[in-house]
Known about the structure:
Helices cover 46% and strands 13% of the residues. By secondary structure, it is of the alpha/beta class. Strands 7, 8, 9, 10, 11 and 13 form a 6-stranded mixed sheet that branches. It has a 5-stranded mixed sheet with strand order 2-1-3-12-6, with helices on both faces. A two-stranded antiparallel sheet has the order 4-5. Strand 4 and strand 5 form a beta hairpin. The longest helix has 19 residues. 48% of the residues are buried. The N terminus is likely disordered.
Amino acid sequence: MQHDRLLSRLALAGALTLTAGAGAAQAVEISFFRFFGECQAEYGSVNTAAEANGECGIITALANQFAAENTLGATVATQIVDWGAYYDLLTATYSTGSIPDVAVMHGSVLPNFAERGLLMPLGPVFAEAGIDTADFVPAALANATSGGEVYALPYDLHALLWHVNMDLMAEAGLVNPDGTPILPTSPEELIAQGRQFKERTGKFYLASESQAAEGMMVRFWQSLMWQQGVDVLSADGKTASIDTPEGLTAADLVKAMYDEGLVNPALDYAGAEQAFLNGEAGIIMNGTWVVDSYDTQARSGEAALKNYRVANLPTLFGTPAVWADSHMWVIPADPSRSPEETAAAVAFIKFLNDNSFQWSRTGHLSVRQSVIDSPEFASLPHRTEYAETATRARALPPAQNQRAIFNAMFTDFNAIWLTGTEPADALAAMQASVEQILRRNR
């Protein structure tokens, strides 16, 4: 039985970990499959994660550091995949036989792989390796679990934030006496403040990816749905609540933001970032993953952005809520993987867990309570400015084909500002597309 073989590998992995210093393990190459971009020119020779910045820099340095320090003699061969094609290419590795030893995976995608037997169960692995699952915050451990079995090492909680250019907000008269930004608490205030900002600065109030598949506005719309007490998908993942009065209220607000010229509809993800860094927008709606990068650029003195601040996504309706997901590490199931390769993969995952504080420097919220409670985490820039995001975070329930569901939603939703589709028509199309996927799931 494959499960029995896995358990025997776990026992061997634990033994190898204990005896690695005596040279018991055979040197192996760990195939590491990830996105997060390519930055070899800058960080390819950095072997200390503390000396790196940003998602790409820190994960590159972590892999380098493990290769330099591990007592197994293991090396890491990283395969960097473009985010848009990542899951298609990961799925294809099961057919080609080039299955990676360690791969990154979103919590929203995990059920697709776990329920098809494509991932190695990791509960016993963690026990053997000394990884304390009790240290993971409950929401993160739930994201890593499918069918009662743990299949992943949760690594972060990432969510939407508002990143703010305080110099432009001051010019617009949108700064409180205590130096914090004045942000909206209702749809009406959002439009009014956006108009004021545009009139006083001549710039866009908000920068957001509007032209590509990142779906920032869909995530914003989902957040507004949760704020109104509506779950886009039911807890059992079988029904959708998209074409609803609450859905229309949220979609009408998004349309008004574009109609009022508060958001530039011509920007893709990179363009929105450049506009914010160049001082062409007061706020950018982006994730936790860019806090470290924006802070570094603001401190460098080379960007137009000088006075940078972070804020929780504003609560525009009754309930504080924001879209969130998790990055996690998995060991794809591979019957041909040797016990030595399994031991090395487990050692690499344990190393990543042991050094999860370094990953939290990106801006992502840590999923280890011991890290969250540490003085080092508390001293990181801006963390107090969006600490409440951890308690406001919401995610779609575990369901098959979440990526397909998301893709169907943003395709129809983006038509509101790209082709002038009325919000009611866009929501009807979204509802029909998502229901079709849910029926296939059933």
